[in-house]
Amino acid sequence: MARILVVDDDAAVQVTVRLLLERAGHSVVTADSGRNGLALCKTGDFDLLFLDIFMPGMDGFETMRMVRQHRPQMPIIVISGRLTTSDADGVPDFLTMATKLGAVSSLQKPFRPADLLAAVARCLHTAGCGASRPAGGVASSP
After folding, report:
1. Mean pLDDT computed over 8-28
2. CATH number belonging to domain 3-127
3. How many degrees, rounded to 5, is the angle at CA 111 between CA 20 and CA 104?
4. At what angle do helices 11-23 and 113-127 cross, to 10 degrees?
5. Is this model's pTM higher than 0.70 or not?
6. At a CB cut-off of 8 Å and minimum separation 6, what does 132 contact?
7. Which of 22, 33, 55, 56 has the lowest CB atom count within 10 Å?
8. Whole-angstrom Cα distance, residue 62 to residue 86?
């Protein structure tokens, strides 16, 4: 299946997402910061990036901007634990903002495992990535 990079400063989210994706047959690498994720993106061959928006240091928006310079075609799914609100509340909807800036999908934490797997499947199908990559050396079938 696909090789996926998960960038989130919350270790529990990293583990949860990694386990869900690995059970679905994907190869997963995790990073605990935008800087570490960017370094891995520059050196690794990833089919998809899972990216938290709010992290200390380099946030998800800056990380996404830098990743786009090196890997402009890599699909990015952004995730955030901050509540989405309407502009009437004076707080921007950061997930929508991220998709307008280039993320192909977004998920609000906490998310259901089925929603995460569906978003990954849609992104990989749309990008034409990962479907032919063997998982564990064995070709997968739908």
Report:
1. 96
2. 3.40.50.2300
3. 85
4. 70
5. yes
6. 139
7. 56
8. 23
